[in-house]
Design brief:
Elements lengths: L1 E2 L5 H17 L6 H5 L7 H7 L6 E5 L5 H8 L4 E6 L2 H13 L7 E5 L5 H4 L5 E6 L10 H10 L1 E12 L23 E4 L17 E3 L4 H10 L3 E8 L11 E2 L5 E2 L10 E7 L7
Parallel strand pairs: 2-3, 2-5, 3-4, 5-6
Antiparallel strand pairs: 1-7, 6-12, 7-8, 9-12, 10-11
Helix pairs in contact: 1-5, 7-8
Length: 280
């Protein structure tokens, strides 16, 4: 249900994520055995849109257990840094890095709130600041996030965001065809759903979550106001899990509506650069 932002929103969300780390580690969704053996955690469109990361530094905000972060290292990034507010998630990420023989000079992980990233990460700026899926909905202030993320982009570097499309949060869970929620609502969404996207039936105790919806226009405007130049905004007709009961899994492992249904955007991605001083 919608409500004013509760005072304990961060503590509630952290408890929820801390509890789900071991569930995710053991899940087929993340499949850590396959990841250690070389499976890429990144989506093909992300790899294509980010481009060659060889020799570059990359900061991953809200990295969870670090699979995406470490995948960028495998793609050639000189150094990757992952940040997350969940200590169990960060410890898991560090363990994964060690199992892949990636020392802290190649892959480092820090525990901190995303808004505190500038004082928590090892360096003041990065060639690429990356944010993966399912991140922005946990943040109450998208303008503050944009300012924080933009401050960490080196001149000539860029921010890359891949996220679930907020339009999907307005639709009914069963069919994804009926608008049931307000796209422009700014209040917090407080929920008590047990389990997790990686295991819907997992027994869980800390089920309270506090989330926010951020329309695409709000995100783009916030990044532009923070001094970044929007290079592209792409919308995608596929998503990563069966968000609606009518979605069908394709051969690429992504979920789409049946071919006889009109398509809507299920995810979006954008790239925003920080101009060099002589380009500003």
């Amino acid at each position: 249900m919608y409500s004013p932002t509760p005072d304990d929103w961060q503590d509630a969300n952290r408890a929820r994520w801390d509890e789900r780390v071991p569930i995710h580690v053991a899940s087929d969704f993340y499949d850590l055995e396959a990841f250690r053996a070389g499976k890429d955690a990144l989506r093909p469109f992300e790899i294509a849109e980010v481009g060659d990361v060889t020799g570059k530094t990359l900061l991953h905000l809200q990295c969870h257990i670090g699979l995406d972060t470490l995948s960028w290292s495998r793609h050639g990034a000189a150094q990757v840094v992952g940040l997350d507010f969940s200590e169990p998630a960060v410890e898991t990420a560090r363990g994964l890095a060690e199992s892949l023989d990636l020392g802290p000079d190649r892959a480092a992980f820090v525990t901190a709130d995303v808004y505190d990233a500038p004082t928590a990460v090892p360096d003041s700026s990065y060639d690429i600041v990356y944010t993966g899926t399912g991140a922005l909905n946990w943040l109450p202030d998208i303008g503050r996030w944009a300012e924080t993320a933009a401050s960490l982009v080196a001149p000539g570097g860029f921010l890359y965001l891949a996220e679930f499309h907020p339009l999907t949060d307005t639709l009914d869970d069963g069919t994804g065809s009926v608008v049931t929620h307000d796209y422009f609502n700014r209040e917090a969404w407080v929920d008590e759903t047990p389990g997790t996207y990686a295991d819907f039936d997992a027994p869980t105790v800390h089920n309270r979550s506090v989330e926010w919806q951020h329309p695409v226009g709000e995100v783009v405007t916030a990044l532009a106001a923070a001094g970044l130049r929007i290079e592209f905004l792409h919308e995608h007709d596929a998503t990563l899990f069966p968000r609606f009961g009518t979605l069908e899994r394709g051969t690429d492992g992504h979920y789409r509506f049946p071919s006889d249904r009109p398509r809507i955007p299920l995810m979006y991605s954008l790239k925003a650069t920080r101009p060099k001083p002589d380009q500003a």
